[in-house]
Amino acid sequence: MSWKTVLHEMKHSAFFKKLLEKVNRLYRERTVYPPKKHLFRAFELTPYEEVKIVILGQDPYHQKGQAMGLAFSVQPDVQIPPSLKNIYKELENDLGVPPKDHGDLTNWAKQGVLLLNTTLTVEDSTPGAHHGLGWETFTDFVIQTLDRHEKPLVFMLWGAPARKKKALLKNSKHLVLEASHPSPLSAHRSFLGCGHFSKANRFLKRNGRNEVDFSQ
């Protein structure tokens, strides 16, 4: 199975074509992130059959040069955003992995970590600008498709929009982990100390799947 196969119905639907028309118009008329060429980068770097962990965020970073198509990730030469600093902090507390000196999570994606936002686009300096545009319907479909994955997966739902997706996950063979968003405004509620990374790797190992090396 591939993303092309599992998303065929969605990609050829009247809804999705209309959504892309709206998104393309916004790219022409406004400053939208991530760069259009990186819009579906999460799917390009993490093939469907290789997904192990789904980390679900909210919408992309909304400042110039930050968003690059992977939830919570930035290009290597971009300052590490506060949310990602808290992710690194939790990773160090949980697995003893020292924080990286950059915020590029591409190597996680290549190991099977699908870094997906509930909304795939945002406008400059306007967080949440594209909520309700239609991306939620698309990402709901993606999550329901992943719920039918033949292998056991780990879903990390961070923040209220991501946690709402729990209702879509019906398959008991998967592990669903919830926490507040790693933003400095909410990380103290339930993200810091959540232990999601060690829980995920223990689950993968228990189910005969390779663990993710989060130090890469």
Question: Which strand order spans the largest sheet, edge to edge or round the barrel?
Answer: 3-2-5-6
Radius of gyration: 16 Å
**Number of DSSP helices?**
10
Helix-strand sequence:
HHHEHEHHEEHEHEHH
* Number of strand segments: 6
Uncertain segments: none
Fraction of residues in β-strands: 5-15%
- Return the structural class: alpha/beta
- Average pLDDT, rounded to a whole number, is 95
- Report the helical percentage: 25-40%
Q: Give the end-to-end Cα distance, rounded to a whole number of Å.
A: 27 Å
Largest sheet features: 4 strands, parallel
Shape: globular
Structural write-up:
By secondary structure, the protein is of the alpha/beta class. The protein is about 35% helix and about 10% strand. The strands form 2 sheets. A 4-stranded parallel sheet has the order 3-2-5-6. Strands 1-4 form a two-stranded antiparallel ribbon. The two termini are about 25 Å apart. The mean pLDDT is about 95.
Topology:
Blueprint: H1 3-6, H2 8-11, H3 14-29, E1 32-33, H4 41-45, E2 53-57, H5 82-95, H6 106-110, E3 113-117, E4 122-123, H7 135-147, E5 154-158, H8 160-163, E6 175-179, H9 187-190, H10 196-206
Parallel strand pairs: 2-3, 2-5, 5-6
Antiparallel strand pairs: 1-4
Overview features:
216 residues, alpha/beta, two-stranded antiparallel sheet, 10 helices
Task: Provide a brief overview of the structure.
It is built from ten helices and six strands, in the order H-H-H-E-H-E-H-H-E-E-H-E-H-E-H-H.
